[in-house]
Backbone:
């Protein structure tokens, strides 16, 4: 079922309104949809490399907007939807531990997970549920999602089809190195 959904999303990359669909998929993936926008972004950048940065901008903007929806879901619907499930599984105090963890490490969680293929919706909903500072969440989301999509688009624009296989096999490594670079940059700025 998930494979069929992935194939449908992939097919949208050839649709005449592909940029609109790219935005829809990117928005939805940040809060509830299981397929990442990369399924469309990669073939779209390869087909029209001169538009790669435009496509990265669409992904960034709509992903951050979708992340705001995910945040709202966690903030306002946690008690209604997620908490009863967590309690049913015997993890009632897990939310308290998670809230403390987000207070301590929240921005780092957003920066790291926003770059990697780990579902970003987890970060958005969890940030809202923990009542993490919204402005910090928003700024970290812009930085991390922008870095992720623009790096991918630039690699595809510069190297084309040969980089595709490399990216597909090593996406986690690439995004982890990028995350380490961003975190290192923030640490340097904090120490200066």
Residues:
């Amino acid at each position: 079922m998930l494979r069929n959904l992935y194939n449908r999303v992939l097919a949208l990359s050839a649709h005449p309104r592909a940029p609109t669909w790219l935005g829809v998929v990117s928005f939805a993936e940040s809060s509830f949809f299981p397929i990442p926008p990369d399924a469309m972004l990669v073939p779209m950048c390869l087909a029209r490399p001169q538009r790669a940065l435009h496509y990265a901008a669409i992904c960034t903007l709509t992903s951050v907007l979708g992340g705001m929806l995910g945040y709202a879901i966690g903030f306002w619907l946690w008690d209604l939807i997620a908490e009863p499930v967590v309690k049913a599984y015997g993890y009632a105090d897990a939310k308290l531990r998670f809230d403390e963890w987000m207070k301590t490490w929240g921005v780092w969680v957003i920066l790291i997970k926003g770059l990697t293929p780990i579902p970003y919706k987890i970060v958005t909903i969890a940030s809202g549920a923990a009542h993490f500072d919204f402005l910090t969440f928003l700024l970290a989301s812009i930085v991390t999602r922008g870095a992720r999509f623009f790096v991918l688009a630039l690699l595809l624009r510069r190297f084309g089809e040969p980089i595709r296989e490399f990216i597909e096999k090593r996406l986690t490594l690439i995004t982890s190195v990028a995350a380490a670079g961003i975190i290192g940059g923030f640490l340097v700025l904090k120490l200066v």
